[in-house]
Amino acid sequence: MSSKAIRIHAHGGPEVLSWEDVPTPEPGPGEVLLHHEAIGLNYIDVYFRNGLYKISSLPATIGMEGAGTIWAVGPGVTGLAAGDRVAYAGGPIGAYATERVIAADRVVRLPDEIDFTTAAAMMLQGMTAQYLIRRTYRVRAGETILVHAAAGGVGLILCQWAKHLGVRVLGVVSTEEKAEVARAHGAADVIVGNADIADQVRKLTQGAMVPVVYDSVGRETFMSSLDCLAPLGLMVSYGNASGPVPPFELAVLAAKGSLYVTRPTLATYIASRQDLLAVANDLFDVVLTGAVQIRVNQTFKLADAAAAHQALEARRTTGSTVLIP
Ligand code: NDP
User: Fold this and answer.
1) 2-123+269-324 in CATH: which number?
2) pTM given for the model
3) What CATH fold (topology level) applies to the domain 141-263?
4) What DSSP character marks residue 104?
5) Is 149 a pocket residue for ligand 1 (Cβ < 6 Å)?
6) Whether the CB of 148 sits within 6 Å of ligand 1
């Protein structure tokens, strides 16, 4: 049997994404064969494509998130069967394919009310939002927080979820149009552009600054994000959309008020099956009650993944983007 997949034979621009015939894999012990109905597009796919994150052997199929139907289970798999509706997010790469095999303990069953497209749009970005505001820094009602790329995939979920918890969100975006989108999804105030973020945060907080900054932009905003923190504040640097954060003097953290910095990744927070289920269930709850709405604002055919990457990198997307096989 054969499947279709987007493969890369070398790192590079969107043009290295190639739509190819591949053999349909067989599920090994502890694995399931999953037929994808929808695949999530994430910024991490860009890093794996362009080589910022290394892939051990090429050619390879990128992609970290999908939803679909189990076609077959390998030896030793219990509790899952052909026909089950499931979704997953996280490594190993391999999601940009009509079918893939994946460890059974990495997939979660989908509630009936959540369709495949929504699932593929929400698992990676939504579980990220969950751990960022529930574990990395547990936000509390009445607090004010700063969220970069507030109209993006993770951003829109973070804004809605934090507001639902009684938090005031200050968002940062690049255009007025995106500011509108962020405001419509829970951001109380939105800063447009990177020029004077700390000054604007000072005004918006009457000088108090914020206890936590969620910064996924990286190189361009890291230092100004530190300036937005109150003493003892936590800098959460969780992405590199503008490039990786360069090395910096640790003593800067003392001078700016005994700050903390963390560089978290979803993989750590869902490493155990127990944590994966807890994070996923927390996400399902806020989606099912409507507290968080998943915005699939762009859909592409999987074969057109290159166009999807171009849109994401050119900052033309808002909310989540899904690839349909
Ligand atoms: P987004 O939908 O947020 O897209 C990225 C956004 O980043 C853009 O829309 C843009 O918004 C902003 N941006 C700022 N500077 C640049 C730049 N130079 N080039 C491109 N975009 C830029 O993507 P995702 O929701 O998929 O991911 C958001 C971020 O979170 C990424 O950095 C990703 O790597 C990170 N992430 C980290 C995880 C973790 O566990 N550590 C897990 C999931 C995501 P604007 O135009 O408004 O500035």
Assistant:
1) 3.90.180.10
2) 0.98
3) Rossmann fold (3.40.50)
4) G
5) yes
6) no
